[in-house]
Fold each of these.
Amino acid sequence: MVHISRRNVLASAAAAGATALLASRGAEAAAPSAEQASRPTELAGHEPVTVRWLEGGAPAELAAGTTFGVPWPRGAFAPDQEFSLVTDSGTAIPVQSWPTGWWPDGSVKWTAHATSGAAPRAESYRLVAGEAAAPDSPVTVTSNSRRITVDTGVIAVTFRRGGEHLVESIRRGDTVIAEKGRLVASRQDRPSTEQAEVIRSQFFTSAVEEVTVEQEGPVRAVVKVEGRHRKDRRAWLPFTVRFYLYAGSDAVRVVHTFVYDGDAERDFVGGLGVRFDVPMRGEPHDRHVRFAGQGEGVLSEAVRGITGLRRDPGAAVRQAQVAGQATPDPTTWDQRVTTRLQYIPAFGDYSLHQLTANGFEVHKRTKAGHSWIRVDGGQRARGLAYVGSPSGGLAFGMRNFWQLHPTELEITGAATDTAQATVWMWSPRAGAMDLRFYHDGMGQDTYPEQLEGLEITYEDYEPEFGTPYGVARTTELTFWALESTPSAERVSALADANATPPLLASPPEHNHAAGVFGAWSPVDRSNAARDEVENNLALMHRYYVDSVDQRHWYGFWDYGDVMHDYDRDRHAWRYDVGGYAWDNSELSTDLWLWYHYLRTGDATAFRFAEAMTRHTGEVDMYHLGEWKGLGTRHGVQHWGDSAKQVRISNAGYKRFLYFLTADERVGDVLHELVDADRTFLVLNPGRKLTDEPFDPDPTALGVGKSTDWGALALAWLTEWERNGDEIARTKLINGATTIAALPNSWAQGGNVTYNLADGRFTGPSEPSISIGSLSSVFGLIELMTELLELIDDEQVTAQWVRFCRLYNSTAEEQRLETGSSWGSLNLRQAYSRATAYAAVRLDDAALAERAWRELRTGHAGYPEDHDFTAERVEGPAVLNPVDEARLGTNASAQYGLAAIQCLALVGDHI
């Protein structure tokens, strides 16, 4: 077995010459500072990296294009390094590259790379340092005071700087494929479920407030549009919509985010969508509608059908219509059909609505004012539709269409001169969103009563705290401006690209060698002991993946999260029992899932973690109001619990997706969290446990030095990595150094306070102890593993290593070094990874062996003989057949993280 040394694990093969303390950079810089550039240290470079499609093979279609991130060892490249993307045969593929993360010495840590769907596709590529190939038709951006136009060489998209329409037009050559792209929403003053005699409705459309060009090509252009939905004098539901266009592509990828800023008692959102007008050309029998169903299924219809009639127009005519091609001149048809065309109904309106995760239906009608008729149905539609004619049309779709139900793809007016194509992210057919709190408080009017409630349902209730004001949702869409009606095979390929956008990824071995994300290692089954742990990790992960589908953890506000704990009596997760319901990132579930992907490179693992990040980064945290930057503790509703905490909005859970995909929306969320420490001025997290009045002093705030600071510091670390606000670096370093200067550092008791201005902690000079089991299980261990490799501070290192060594040590050892016992601490299995870290830092084999004993003992987790397999439970004991295992999410997340890090750090002692 290869011995994993301290250098290999903690430096992770980083190149030499980069140990200086925190050479900072300005947010706008894309190259090393003058000081860094003048250093004599030479950059080491790096051999080519092979990147492959995440799902394997070469995809038939891309959703416009793809953008992916690749990490590099410290000291390998300068931020202005160019990269080339080539196939195994040596064909250069046009690629656009830019840095997204920096090492402290100014060398590039992460790069992002974009390639177009128009480029030749292979199963894998080599990313090589060198000049990039230029696209045949580069993206160009032109702008004036009123408009911005992005031209991909195939389509031109014009954006308005103000007004109702985000997109003025999408042209393909001289043909307008779509125009007047806008957002639509509806509101009603009462819920749909209570049969009110009168329900008042309002309909809103987008009002553009700001348009920003974030990238200008040559391969990829990004336009960000911000605004609110407006009706008369009311403007609400703020939105951020990004449009991605790629060289030579006829597609537009769209990332839509809205924030709920209404009153849950009277603002019920009845519909939320994106709509385009689509000019219709040709006769109704040459206009076509397509819907992608489940699997490879496609529904193909004409607005005015000429098949199945009593009189036959002729085989050539029928075949052309079925294929979506222009039919022959009607004078060549059987005239018994031609002379009676006006009597064949033209169905101008279509709807495919997915109101549950397990069922969709398609309906159509001739026009408004007439009845809908049922066409067909199925289980899980892939979320893509088309409307147009042989001379061009619009394909439009929504990712995670059935997972994010209730959704709908709607076409109206296709029998007129202008059709409307709408992606409903919340279908009006479903009834309005009801975001009210789920119970009346049950008399919990005072803090003592609320604490009593916590003792029975684990729900931390407080009046007016269960508000959705400020929560968000992000949805991904794609629009294709097609030159003709696509074949059924092409529709199916577009639907697949829409449902699972192809993504290139570098392998676990390269990512690990680059030294990113702390202590982890690729899967290693080189002996029986390792194999057993790997089996446990794989079985546990598979159980949660399967549970999502078996338990139907889907829906607009829910998809991406998992449940917190299980009720074996009901054979059900405790979805209705207070704090045992939705997990909301409790005990770092997100971290476990991302590390599982990093070490396996598995596509299912990536998509699972990606969905969780989309959810927890939007729904489980606030993006507006005084609680902006705070997350909500686990509960029956994602925003329902009264504990609003930075440990839940934790940037450490989101940075993986950002660096692996360069996703700008995730970048926005990460940047929001830089100032999350300001929330301690408006909300006292410990308000129910003290009689002291809340009178916050910005120079002496009650910010916890472990759980709170760890979450804040992960936001600052990410901002520093991204070359952002200088205050992030300042607060990160000040916090680490001043905590380490306390007599007992992260375990110090007494009145330890935080200065909002500079991030420094101040505390008593006499040693005492105040430590809880949750202190390090919200990312603090992972933060410090990374941070200590980025700074050169002996005291911070020594104090953190001491903390890691002492947590699971004996009371006698704790008293000897800190003056008192640390008490009966919980989650000892989780902290085995802290012991392992100390073992590596101190080169202590006895500590390494102790770490494995702690993991195998399984205190507050899973002991060595724990059964990770699941048993099948069938009806009538349950509503649907399910697999049942003795697993809870707290224990799973922490066992996963502990096992992964023990394997990486002290695997040679297993």
Amino acid sequence: MTMDSDTGRRLRDEGCETAEPVAEAPASGRGRRPASEDEARVSPMMAQYVEIKAANPGSLLFYRMGDFYELFFEDAEVASRALGIVLTKRGKHAGADIPMCGVPVDRADDYLQRLIGLGHRVAVCEQTEDPAEARRRGGKSVVRRAVVRLVTPGTITEERLLDPGRANLLLALARRRASESAWAYGLAAVDISTGRFSLGEVEAAGLSAEIARLEPREIVMAEAIHQDPGLARLWRDTAAAVTPMGRGDLDPASAERALKEQFGVATLDGFGAFTRVEVAAAGAVLHYIARTQLGARVTLSPPVRQAAGVSLMIDAATRQNLELTRTLAGERAGSLLAAIDRTVGGAGARLLAERLAGPSTDLALIRRRHDAVAFLVGEGALRAELRGELARAPDMARALSRIGLERAGPRDLAALRDGLLAARAIATALAGAGALPGEIGKAARLLAGVGGDLVETLGAALADELPLLKRDGGFLREGYRAELDEARALQSDSRRFVAGLQARYAQDTGCRTLRIKHNNVLGYYIEVPQAFGETLLKDPWRATFVHRQTMVDAMRFTSVELGELETRIAGAAERGLALELAAFAELARAVMAQAEGIAAAASALAALDVAASHAALAVELNWTRPVIDDGLAFRIEGGRHPVVEAALTRAGEAFIANACDLSGTQPRPGQDPAGQDPAGQILLVTGPNMGGKSTFLRQNALIAVLAQMGAFVPAASAHLGLVDRLFSRVGAADDLARGHSTFMVEMVETAAILNQATRRSLVVLDEIGRGTATFDGLSIAWACLEHLHGVNGCRALFATHFHELTGLARRLDRLSNATLKVTEWKGDVVFLHEVVPGAADRSYGLQVARLAGLPSSVIARAKGLLAELERGDGGRGRRAPAAELPLFAAAPPEPPPAPAPRPDPVAALLDGLDPDALSPRDALDALYRLKAARAQGSG
């Protein structure tokens, strides 16, 4: 954008020279010494800017000037590049041109959204006095300004800046020594936009997984944590903005006091038991909120402690591999979340994402959630009614937060009105539904009677059409305030009032040409012909009319009554807005008086939205309720991959369902049950490329996630024992920034799995060892299988192209083989995508290479080489069979190969015959030869 004439005028008014725009950014002049005393002078406006900017380092300063937010110096250069707006120069500072750009105030949210999305922080500097006041002070006074708010990725509340379906978490970290060589971390997560506040503590090994689960927008921590070399990769890999804080900002002695002050309590015992490091993290997050909100009181729910082990632990690599909430490309579309989301409101969408990110390990809670889904599956009419009302309910939690921050607009009040109306309708519907399962019954109790008379009050107060900002006025309904109606009438009907006064004066004086007029110098005045004006200067009129001005052919007067009318007209808009703002404050106080009940109702609506979403999904796609217990079962019949199935359905194709059984084994008969812990099965999956191995592996992991988040699952039936940790090593990636190859990343992730998996864990591994030499990779894969079997004892799916590993099933009693069926038709490979017991004998790599478009000459050469290798005369490139590998020496000997069949002489003769070319004599001779050959073969 370019700077308009108003911008230049504003700068001139505040003592800054102006110049023409330039196409490129000039040098900022930093570090340059002024060439003269004149150059060293600083304009009052620029002195004010520099002072405010110095107090807010690290933030782009939005400096309010009239209808624009202006940025100067390096801020202007950064914003110009980030926003794609034109950089200009305006005046001089310290002898150098001043880079400058600006954005209109009425479009500031759009630009803020883009800057925040890029990780920038913005200090919003507003004019705190009327420019007329500055002019009255005289001299070189500039309009007083102050930063009213710091906008950071983790502290935004504006509806237009927020993603409706994603929590906007600010996460603070603190730490303590857990041992001489290890740290434990306290985490405090706050969503200012809803008031959510949770605390937790994790060991260092679980920090990355916990941050991945929370998916915060911003992380704040002490400088020492930020500078820890062991965490450098974590800060680099996270998508969150990372903000180090000074040591004094995290004073542990003041953390507990800050918490008590926030909630107005003398002790924290009523909220539960928190560790010292959790309290330290809570103090840090409250300190950062106070700093960014500049004294505005944030309404937060009491802190809830997230105890260790209450949610399924999923590390960052597994989340990425399974594409739970984002695809590998970082998109929501194509993820599991996008495939299962049938919510109709923003709060429900956020709760769904939260439950998917952290599936529960609380068996009773999971069953209550399944009960709620099952109830709504069976109550189709009630489900439709609930979803209809939920779709009409705005996001009450975020509207309530803005009201508490005094950052709300009229539409936020309307959101609460409409949300409470929907809550009332849903409560009525549930009251007539009979016996309700736990989660739905709890929601019904929270919704019953919420809001009281507040709904009627808001309905009577708010107009049908509402402005975005309260400062625009016009949001109160006619008839709500009599004095406001009068002010509005005076403002809109000023011409009628003036015309009525003019008619009365004309009648009283007998001057039919008397007119009431207005100009910017005199304001309203009475004008009569000069001849009649002389009359008004005499009794009895001179007591009513005061002479103002004599013209060539007219005289102008005023009166007390006209002056009062002018005052009322001039102040009507200001008075009307003041009355509306006062009424808005009253309504906001009434809302906050019931904030706790409203927040609880908003949470109840979100929970109903999620339950109804799961039910709608189950009905739509024929998903079933899983059986969940605390054993080691993992038995799935007719399992399907929800994302792949959705894509195939859109393409008009069917998904091939498959079974999977990893159920744990119990001690053998006659063994001491205390002497052997139950352990899970390992399924070794082989098969061709593109046969569906990765889909099969992922779908079973996703079914476990869906079951433990409280949803139904895409399967004919499922019986699952609780999973405590889910690990997935699928796909290839490198970390070139740290000098790590694809194979190194694979080994790091595999090491994390082998070191952390328990008997209750579910492990999904695909192609371990493929990134190195054949024998090296085979050896590593072999050893990993043995470790999973003998040490971890977990339920696992292990896909591989090392067919030699299938021999392990004869010596590892909890390992079995499965393969993907395939067939060939006229030289082409046909993938059947069906998982069956057994082992694959080939990978069909050449067929897949041909499908991928490799040149035919390459395919032909590869076929020849493969034939030589399979005959065993390929030299050094030959893959040794399992019996020749030292690793397999401990395996039971394979049975000797069956003797090669003797050639059939009759078949050989038949193969050489061409019936169409035989004469009768030739045919007779051939018949004799066949008879002789048969006699020879039988002998």
